[in-house]
User: Fold these one by one.
Assistant:
Number 1:
Amino acid sequence: MGADGMGAPPENVLQALLSYIQFTDEDAELLKRMGPEVRRFFPRVVERFYEAIYRTPEALKVFTGGAAQIERQRDRLSAWLEGLIGGVYDDVYLERRARIGRTHVKHELDQRWMFAAMNIVRRELHAALTEIGWPEDERTRGHTAIDKICDVELAMMLETYREDYTSRVQMNERLATLGQIAASIGHELRNPLAVIQTSLQLLGRRVDDERAKRHVKKIGDQIGLCNAIITDLLELARDRPPERHRLDLVDLVRATLPEVPRSEGVTITGRLPSEMVAVLVDSSQIRQIIVNLVLNAVQAVGPTGEVTVTVRALEDGRGELRVEDNGPGLPTDVVRRLFEPLFTTRSAGTGLGLALCRRITEKHGGEISGGNRSEGGACFVVTLPPADRSAS
Ligand code: ADP
């Protein structure tokens, strides 16, 4: 185990597990040797694996991307099987495996399905090994090697699942507590804001001077913004499950873009396809994502700049929303923390916008990521589940 605890702990996890179950070089060698022969049975393993999922509504509902998503996962399962009996169990192997545990957390897959699924893989690999007709002694040792590596796999998945799950729970708790405090303050601010708004309207009717009128309008806009912030906070505190309906993402973006406040020198261009992009989403929540991302982009570009919002249907039917800007982009340390609640680099920022975007996206079974464009500026991409679950 060589490491002193300061380095990446996952390396220790794998080594500790292998040593605990006395996984030997001979086991690795046997798995590597059976690889080429067992590989032809992979389609059958994959078939059995997904048959079980199709039989089980609770496991199936994780695949919010429908048939197309399952198809992608089939290919990944084959690649995963290759690794399983590849005979090389190093850091790269561990990192690939750890990613699977994290993906399970992301898709809210209950741990019991991991056990059930591994059982199918194990059973099918044993059957395949029996069928290739190795001499009895080698076959027996081969079966043991399969068992050992399957146990290690499962333990690693559970370990990364637990780590990721714990950190998400902590983050959500933090979000919930802060959200509740902030929301109750926000709620209290709603009344005085409403009074200001009413008085402003009355005042506005009596103002003739053009400059004064502009100021009245500015105050009105800012009140609108305050209300929007309060809505965000309340939404965050409420943690409302999405009420999904089939709708056209193109329409939603087209209707939302004019609502985003911007200075005169900033242009927001919608690159919208003429055909519809049907997604299964909660319209007010997705509207919130659009506003947050576009507002961030507008704020990033400063007094003059360009923001482009692109909508398209991906090949598998999912809808994609892309918000790009020609602002300063995201420094590396910001990229890492983008979606952390309360992380902000702006003096007037709350650091809640992207945390909220991520939570909404994940509740929809979608994905969100942020990065830099090669030509400069930031780019945020959101994918959303198709309206038609069997879309492909
Ligand atoms: P807030 O906007 O209140 O700061 P967010 O969660 O929306 O909170 O954003 C977190 C941080 O991410 C921002 O403070 C900013 O540093 C960075 N960020 C978000 N969008 C962009 C963008 N388009 N360009 C550059 N930085 C951005």
Note: The longest helix spans residues 136-206.
Number 2:
Amino acid sequence: MNRKMMIAGNWKMNGLSAEGIGLAKEIAAKVKQKKRTCEFVVCPPFTLLNLVKKALRGSKIALGAQDCHFAEKGAHTGDISPVMLRDLGCEYVILGHSERRADHKESSALVAKKVEAAHNCWLKTIVCVGETLEQRESGKTIEVCSRQVRESLPEGSRAANVVVAYEPVWAIGTGKTPTPQEVEDVHAAIRQVLAKKIGKSEAAKMRILYGGSVKPANAKEMLTLEDVDGALIGGASLKADDFIAISDNAGC
Ligand code: 13P
């Protein structure tokens, strides 16, 4: 199956205006020199979306946000709706990241509502799943990830509007990673769950990214596996050189 690799940067809660613009421009300049066999996405914090959109003008890099509410508008102080993201020029939104599941007690049911709302206004979603260290150590990795995939994807999820990201919680920002074989096993299990949920042919087309301490040094072994279709990169996406080196090592 020929799935287009995706290299996505999740900037998390990092960057003020000048830095964000500078980083976006640097990434855009470097991506321009590539053959563009991969899809690039950057997901800055809400505060930088507009500035980064302008900095990326003329590039093929897509803009993504890191969360959204499920309502289109209304009395939700401090929240941002999917329609607003669309209005700002976002193409993607990350939903169900483990930091939101932990910090904001987001359940998979809530994530599914957000995913559905995002799809309803033509945003594509990057839906994150992953086990904690405790769950891994008690042998529950595949069970936990499978359940999160089943419960976080609403009706209408298709390869054209959803990218799944497998991010083991214990690998995020720690420098630790699962072995390539462990990653491949989880990705293959996720694809099986997807096949049951959305049908075999859609599941075969849907991209599954790996995220969690992806660096230039481990990108090749993690991102050239059969069922791994790219990376969702945190820390290393804040340095243009590292972000691009990861994509180079992934064959982009
Ligand atoms: P790190 O690459 O910093 O481990 O973060 C991964 C992540 O959470 C991306 O969403």
Note: The mean pLDDT is 97.
